HTH-type transcriptional regulator
Amino acid sequence: MEYNEAKNKFISTWGSLGTLWGINKAMAQIQALLFISTKPLSTEEIMEELQISRGNTSMNVRQLMDWGIVTKELVPGERKEYFTTEKDVQELARVIAKERSRREIQPVIKTLKEVCSIKDDGTEKTKELIKQTKALHDLADTADTMLNKLVNQNQNWLTKSLLKLFS
Amino acid sequence: MEYNEAKNKFISTWGSLGTLWGINKAMAQIQALLFISTKPLSTEEIMEELQISRGNTSMNVRQLMDWGIVTKELVPGERKEYFTTEKDVQELARVIAKERSRREIQPVIKTLKEVCSIKDDGTEKTKELIKQTKALHDLADTADTMLNKLVNQNQNWLTKSLLKLFS
DNA sequence: ATAAACTTTCAAAAATTATTGAAAGTTTAA
DNA sequence: TTAAACTTTCAATAATTTTTGAAAGTTTAT
């Protein structure tokens, strides 16, 4: 496997993984492309490499900037905008976890809280609803908190062998 | 908020959360419905409650059985099949984490491994590709392993206050 | 064997989501 | 101010995913 094949494989795999962290294919592919690029890329270059339209590129780059993982880079003497992505995987993971939590997990936790707080009218079905949604709420809340704490450690939890705790 | 409103809110929230664990809306809603039901439900009952077609119900129930979180329940003297879901949230989390890892994360880790193992031809772009995909591989691999170990603890990690480790 | 009761399949339709491209908008240089 | 260089917007279109429903398949009772 030489460079181009490997590059394409990486971009397409990362693109299809987009769903896993809740973004679309083009957005994930743009991020992937920037992630392995040795220099900032212009809109033109992104369009060319990924064979996508200007509008698509513009919207998805903007979204990546909203997520906080892509930034504009101004090249002196150039009118065009150039883009780079966060290159540190730890920081990337931290930002993604934080955003997903804020956008998707927190609202669900909030709803679960509301549902499991309804008045117990004594019927079996109400008791079951309360019991089960309470269990889910607690699980989701704990998992979310843990994920955030884990990912927010600024020490490198990879090399600190935190794994040992669970072995 | 009384029972029916709460029930609908739960089912629809859980349904839209489906994407987060990689399944479609109907599948998530069926699971949600069974999760708060006090008794096993037939295909008819599921169709009726969620207002979905027979074919849709059949296919999604089958998928939930493939995932291992819904099981057939045979009621003596009845010809119909009845369904129940795993009621324990810990076990549910364990199964979901395991399936997601197997279906989606492992294949990506495998690809990352391949890509970061290409021959270093000495060019800057190849070095960058190798370096960045290696970092992602290590992160993904560690995160996946941790998640599985966490979720496989059969002790109750909620009540064991594992949280304290990260506070 | 037959028929009733039920489940599964799958091609077609509907719904949803992503993408395009051209027009409108913005910024900069002269 | 004008015009060139660039970016953004968004209605239309395309692609993808989900859902339907009726036909085919299966099982069970008689």
User: Anything to note?
Assistant: Residues 124-152 of chain B form the longest helix (29 residues). Chain B has two domains: 3-85, 89-166. The longest strand of chain B covers residues 70-73.
